[in-house]
Design a protein that fits this description.
Elements: E1 2-3, H1 16-30, E2 32-35, H2 41-53, E3 60-61, E4 80-83, H3 89-109, E5 115-123, E6 129-132, E7 142-149, E8 162-164, E9 174-176, E10 183-187, E11 193-195, E12 202-210
Helix pairs in contact: 1-3, 2-3
């Protein structure tokens, strides 16, 4: 099944509270929420404008794993990323909006979300990210994944869909067109997913809400 900008899935109201309620309801009922063209215009436009100003050398090849386990593997993924640290006005707008969502979800669903990390992602023509999960069960502290798409005038023929699989046995999945402002939120441990190749440059923001798993010998998330 393909979800595009005309789909009537998790349709949110005009205010953030309506969108946040829609996301919370989807997470609670089925573990994911797909909201076409729902990112507030001021957030989407700020991120898109910032992308137009960025130099490509600000992006670096993405890998798999974290810290000492991080490796580059062109068979698994061929995208480039740039972490969002809040130094740019657009980054601050995005992180502030994500923090509002975190607060709302904690209030509604008692998820204990502690922090948020996020990056821009660029997929050139033909690039992909094969089927994977964002957090292995019981081994990571990523709880909730969030993706926002920044591609105006995206067409079905352009490809580049996100395929969200309901479980390890699902072979068909839900296909989401990466149209401008579309939001996808899902439980990080529960849903394998992949990014299909596109015929044009494809941009998004990917982020993860994390819980605090710090112990006496290790701070996680890191400061």
């Amino acid at each position: 099944m393909l979800f595009d900008s005309a789909s009537n899935v998790d349709t949110a109201g005009s205010h953030d509270s309506g969108l946040f309620d829609s996301i919370a309801a989807g997470i609670e009922s089925r573990g994911y929420s797909i909201n076409p063209m729902a990112l507030p215009p001021e957030v989407a436009q700020a991120l898109h404008a910032h992308l137009q100003e960025m130099e490509m050398q600000q992006f670096s090849r993405a890998g798999t794993g974290r810290q000492q386990d991080h490796v580059l593997n062109d068979f698994v993924r061929r995208d480039e990323i740039c972490w969002i640290n809040g130094e740019s006005p657009a980054g601050r707008v995005w992180l502030a909006w994500a923090n509002q969502l975190r607060t709302h979800l904690n209030r509604q669903l008692m998820l204990g979300l502690f922090s948020f990390e996020s990056h821009f992602a660029h997929y050139g023509p033909g690039d992909f990210y094969r089927r994977h999960v964002d957090a292995f069960r019981g081994e990571a502290n990523r709880v909730l994944s969030l993706v926002a798409y920044l591609n105006p005038d995206w067409q079905v023929a352009d490809g580049g869909e996100l395929v969200l699989y309901r479980d390890d046995e699902d072979a068909e999945g839900l296909r989401v067109q990466p149209s401008m402002g579309t939001l996808v939120t899902f439980l990080s441990e529960e849903f394998p997913h992949e990014v299909l190749p596109a015929s044009r440059d494809r941009y998004s923001v990917a982020g993860w809400f994390r819980v605090n798993t710090s112990v006496s010998t290790r701070v996680d998330p890191p400061l």
